Amino acid sequence: MALKAFNNKDPEKLPFEDSYDFAIVGRPIDKRGIEAKDFLESKSCQSCTFIYNPERHEIRIDDQTYTERDFGQAFKRFKSKSVILETTTLNTGEVFLLIHWLKEIGLKTLDLTYVDPKEYLKVENGEEDKKNKGRRSFNLSEKTFKFHSTLPSVINVSERNVTKGVFFLGYEDERLNKLIDDNESIPGKEKTLVFGNPPFQPGWELNSYYRNIEIISRSPLSTDEVRFCGAKNPIGAIKILKSILKSLGEREKMFIAPIGTKPLGVASAIFTVFNLDNVGLLYDYPKKTKKNRTQEIHSWNIYKLNLLSKTL
Q: What whole-number distance in Å separates Cα of residue 199 and Cα of residue 197?
């Protein structure tokens, strides 16, 4: 398989390279992001901060900005280098762009890392908390944009040949609601809902069910297929996506909406890169909440990707 995944509470016991030419990171917003960034910088000759602006369709690498037509030029510095991506601090859309362009410049292999939290911090939410004793209210994003596909993953959900969609679900039911409201054509598609189970921690899957069940029950999703995949199992997610892709008819396409855990978002990004002719990634580029989001580190993950593989 083109992807291998490893997990351990001690990052020193994971198969990181002794030294990378480049670590590409996002902006950390909590302690685990800072620790992940610091760890990769200690293992790399050079670190670059990568940010995508979904409003202007621009990327910034450190202090230099590039428009979409110059993306290829922006990535030339990484050609023939060893690179690792820090996906705790990058969003799924950014991970997709990075994997695609690093593959385009001929990079043979790519490592990615993710640090999962020991706890997501709950917040007070008025009447909902009174009813549920505060067990399932979270504040993970401050702002989101309209769900859209990003070059080169351009897909129009309203087109008749886009027949199937896959939704990876997590704690942010408001993002699922926004996706449905913004896309009137979704009811006419075959849809698969994927929950992360087994979860990061025992019992966390109940949070995900609770956060989404009301929207699912009153929306066009109520009669669709439900599947389960380990919340930090990108290989399992890719297997689900492969089975759905295989079921497509000639000239049919599918879309993926990764609203769940980052490992399943990474799987969505990888799968889309390897299947651009038939798959589009819909993403809303959420601005993460900076305070009271997560607490402590549970474990570290490293994913090793063969970019030369013809298939996943």
A: 5
